[in-house]
Amino acid sequence: MSGGVIGVLALQGAVREHLRMLDACGARGRAVKRPSELLDCEGLIIPGGESTAIGLLIMRGGFLEALRETAVKGLPIFGTCAGLIMLARRVTEGSQPLLGLMDMTVRRNAYGRQVDSFEADLRVRGIEDEERPFRAVFIRAPWIEEMGEGVEPLCFHQGRAVLARQGHLLAGAFHPELTDDRRIHRYFLRMVEERKNEA
Ligand code: GLN
């Protein structure tokens, strides 16, 4: 895969793992710590971590407006776990800063407190070799509780959507950067290529 830089929002969370995965995919990843660095990016990953912490740091750093603006211009964004929460318009409980870019409601820590993490083999629509299950790692994961018409679910676990796409935005409840399976990152990199070809 050739092309420009894929940013990984580096305020909090699993930044290094995504950079390693991008490298394995042959893409150029770069940690993004300042809003101005978004201008160099052809795509952006918002990693897992703690969505309330990421939200606060986004508010503080002037990132909120910058991210919304670049997203509206069509920057492809892939949010994983806490990143999925950040992309959502609503959470089922409480209030916290969200980017609100995808028309969906998410339930945080949806699998309960007693279930810290688990793995599951899931079918993911649209990735290469899609009949072959993807080993998904869930860590204090959310699920998508409701989504609007423009949001397409790509993967379900126990009847709940856990990966979904809305145009140039992709959100997953699990952590594809923690496995050796590159297919979901490659799917996102294809979205980035598609976007470049449109522009
Ligand atoms: N439970 C975290 C949150 O609500 C997300 C966990 C994760 O990103 N692994 O932000």
Explain how this protein is built.
The protein is of the alpha/beta class and 199 residues long. It has one domain (5-198): 3-Layer(aba) Sandwich (Rossmann fold). The chain is built from 5 helices and 12 strands. The protein has a 7-stranded mixed sheet. A 3-stranded mixed sheet has the order 5-6-9. Strands 7-8 form a two-stranded antiparallel sheet. The radius of gyration is 15 Å and the shape is globular. The protein starts with a strand and ends with a helix. The mean pLDDT is 95. The structure holds glutamine.
Q: Main sheet?
A: 7 strands, mixed
Q: What is the architecture at the second tier of CATH?
A: 3-Layer(aba) Sandwich
Contiguous uncertain segments of 5+ residues:
none
- The CATH superfamily title: Class I glutamine amidotransferase (GATase) domain
Number of strands: 12
Radius of gyration: 15 Å
SSE inventory with pairings:
Blueprint lengths: L4 E5 L5 H10 L3 E5 L8 E6 L4 H10 L2 H10 L4 E4 L1 H6 E4 L10 E6 L9 E6 L11 E6 L3 E5 L4 E6 L2 E7 L2 E4 L10 H16 L1
Parallel strand pairs: 1-2, 1-3, 3-4, 4-12, 5-6
Antiparallel strand pairs: 6-9, 7-8, 10-11, 11-12
The chain binds glutamine.
Glutamine binds next to helix 4.
